[in-house]
Amino acid sequence: KLVSQLCSSCCRYIEQQFKKPVILAGPVVPESPKSRLEDNFARILDGFSRNALVFCSFGSECRLEKDQFQELLLGLELTGRPFLVATKPLIGAESPIESAFPEGFEDRTRGRGFVTGEWVQQQLILDHPSVGCFVTHCGSGSLSEAMVTDCQLVLLPNAGDQIINARLMGGDLKVGVEVEKREEDGKFTRGGVCEAVRLVMEEGSVVGEMVRENHRKWREFVLSVGVEDRYVKEFVHKLQALLDT
């Protein structure tokens, strides 16, 4: 489900390549969660000021290798900001997840660095006032949830459509900053993670100001009254027109 304002050039390309019409069903606006944030995470997030914390999550299926997990943690440590990382069990690493921490990491980040291997209430975390940045693997569901929040986006795709989503969000729409990766092996570094977070979070950053303004505009559009109904009606109308031809 897409909208023409978000991906008109991509849709035109697909139409040209396959000689078939592309009919868009509109944006998917996530419903507001009915539950409340679990106490253990609420205590963490409540301890920080507005927009101070970086939240990082890679969804329910994406798994990092141990060396990339360590680079991620070290990059977030370098930002000097508080952070919360939610990740699945690592590829080729022993459980618990703490066994894969870089040496000395826990001592250096005590009180500001939090890592969990548990399932988390992502929407509720993104909506919390203390969360100012979301480092995401660029899954469609995560991006839909992030686009309706005030969190700034750092894009760290892993595979498949995540890469396309990251190019769209960071390149075409400019609502986030993608973490740079090495040309020789496609891996990211701690410096790349730190720099991307810095760009979207620092006041006075030209890039940061641009992505914040673009994000604000798209958020207002997606949340505008009637946008879902309008697209669904147009979708049905175009389908009917195809049947009538």
TrEMBL record:
GO MF terms, alphabetically ordered: anthocyanidin 3-O-glucosyltransferase activity
Enzyme Commission number(s) of this protein: 2.4.1.115
Enzyme class at the top of the EC tree: transferase
UniProt keyword annotations, A-Z: Glycosyltransferase, Transferase
Pathway: Pigment biosynthesis; anthocyanin biosynthesis
Database matches in InterPro entries: UDP-glycosyltransf_plant, UDP_glucos_trans, UDP_glycos_trans_CS
Name this protein carries in UniProt: anthocyanidin 3-O-glucosyltransferase
A matching Pfam family: UDPGT
Catalyzed chemical reaction(s): an anthocyanidin + UDP-alpha-D-glucose + H(+) = an anthocyanidin 3-O-beta-D-glucoside + UDP
Family recorded in the similarity comment: Belongs to the UDP-glycosyltransferase family.
Record lineage: Eukaryota, Viridiplantae, Streptophyta, Embryophyta, Tracheophyta
Tree of life domain: Eukaryota
Organism, scientific name: Linum tenue
